Amino acid sequence: MSLDKLFYPRGVAVVGSTGKGKLAYHIIRQMLDGGFSAMYAVNPKAQGLDAVSGHPSLLSIPEPVDMAVIASPPATLPRVLADCHQAGIATAVIITAGFSEIGNPAAEDELAQLARGYGIRFVGPNCAGIINTRHRLAPTLETLPPAGGVSLIAQSGAVGGVFLAWAKEFGLGVSKFVSYGNGADLREVELLRYMADDPDTSVVALYIESTSNGPAFMEAIHACTQRKPLVVIKSGRTTSGQRATLSHTGSMAGADAVYDAALAQGGAIRVHTVEELFDACKAFSFLPRLRGNRVAIVTNSGGPGVMAADWAERVGLQVTEPSEQIREELATFLPPHCAFKNPIDLTVEGTEEGYRRTLLALLREYDVALALNIAPAYLDSIPLARGVCQAAQESGKPVATAFLPARIVAQAIPYLQERGIPNFATGERGATALYHLAQHGSRQDRRRPMPTPDPVGGTLPGAGQMLEPEAMAWLQQNGIPVPPFRMAESAAEAVRAAEEIGFPVVLKVVSPQILHKSDFGGVVLNVSDPQQATNAFEKLQAAAAGRDFRGVVIYPMIDAVQEVLLGIVRDPQFGPVVAFGLGGIYTEVWRDLALRVAPLDLVEANAMIRQIRGLPLLQGARGRPQCDLDSLAEALVTFSQLPFRYPEIAEIDLNPVFLLTNGLVVADARVIRRAAL
Questions:
Q1: Homologous superfamily in CATH for domain 4-282
Q2: What integer pLDDT is reported at residue 464 of this predicted model?
Q3: Which residues contact 571 (CB under 8 A, 6 or more apart)?
Q4: Mean pLDDT across the stretch 489-504?
Q5: Radius of gyration (Cα) for the chain, nearest Å?
Q6: What pLDDT is attached to residue 514?
Q7: Which CATH architecture has domain 291-444?
Q8: What's the sign of the alpha-carbon dihedral 247, 253, 254, 259?
Q9: Displacement of CA 85 from its chain's centroid (Å)
């Protein structure tokens, strides 16, 4: 069903005691302050509040009611939900606490089952309510914000409360707010889908602690970001830890890194503090789309300007110097003691006309500008604000400000914001917000449908732990390049196999009990004649003493350009996750890894490749030959579909994969089955 009855109810019943200090009392007061009048109080005493009439039950209300706001004790909820059903009330906001948050999940499950049986959709329990400023609806305990285009979905009511309080204090307009608390029914997925379609929402902010359905969450993110910016805080970055698994990939794919990848793939902007969330929403609310990341910084104080420039470069903006032509133009109207690099320092003598002309000149070759005014107590900041606003209007490009301290520039800030110029508490915070604006702009240029998983294609070969020769043959059948190879169970077979492949060769131990072969001395390189092949076989057989030795696998020696890793691990929330990074025996040491939720397309595969710090090694740094990155991207796309074709897969570790100047080949493969499907 549509959630319109939740956000646009004809009438609202507030269930709970209206005694002073009680939750229902505060909710009704809040609703009245917000201007909502079609409201009814429900409690055993039929006690109303001011103009709100009191009723003994939901069934006694004569007018149509679409939503119940429930703030009565937990034991009353089954009866209240039954009355909602009988009265035709389709939605509820359950403020009442005392469920899974205090270790009582059974009562919460019972509540959800009852509501589901009655066809009632609800937020909560243990939530801080909702707001819809357009409908003058505010059944919440949090601050009423001004109306605008930001909608906030928050698992935590307290985080939402801070955001809303700042919105009121600093003039950020809000469309909708939902605190879903324990999330026994409506959660982030359905709420994101609703906000994506909501014409009154221009920016969506989300605070989550976890999601139970990763693929649906990604689809909801993608649907939202195709239409409007989505800014997300995902908390719990350090508490999830990393899973102990059998592969290099699994040992490095931390749960938070997977969330990071999922949010980026869906097009969301991830932030890490409530301040950063608020600032990003402010930038998206005030400024037009940013097409590029070159920022010009204009200041009247050198130190803060330099710090803003340093921070802007650190977060990912380009802080390049202006062209000689622009510097010559600036010199025609600025005093010679001004700094003409970036940042441009007008000094404390900066004027309205100085800000206006400087910004106009710079915005001819920069994408965005950040104007700082570190105001001394005697300075009237309104003229400087006027110069900034005129430059923004004449240039048509995004301009943000950091006018401070707040007490001294108090009159200038509303002047700026009324004219579409967001003001930030510091230059650094302004730079971060502009970076997020640039992030969204670049992602909008790459908008495309989400890749779809391949259908199930069969079962894995063999039974139990897949041996390396089986894995290599299976990879080859599925379009992943591997070198020529032979399996040998005796020294004589190893010699014949090496001669067929052609010396020099590599011999590797084959045993289901030896996964990381290098750690056991299970690899012999540069075997160049039959006697060395015999010796190598015997050495590997000795290294596997006491283990299930099945023989050796023989490959040609390959002159690789670079070794990389391709891996797959299953995340509990998001399913198959692809890893790519520098490979070899020091993979865990370098920890240079990019993650993506599978499946991938070529755009995402190329983004993975370009994310790792070791990219210059693949591109031919310091005279090295360049690797075939096109073949690598194609292999990543094919590789990412394997866990969908073969649901038995738990993990895959291809390490190393040899990148060549033309193509690539897998040099070692480890495929781990799931314990049970």
A1: Succinyl-CoA synthetase domains (3.40.50.261)
A2: 80
A3: 214, 253, 255, 258, 577, 597
A4: 96
A5: 31
A6: 86
A7: 3-Layer(aba) Sandwich (3.40)
A8: negative
A9: 38
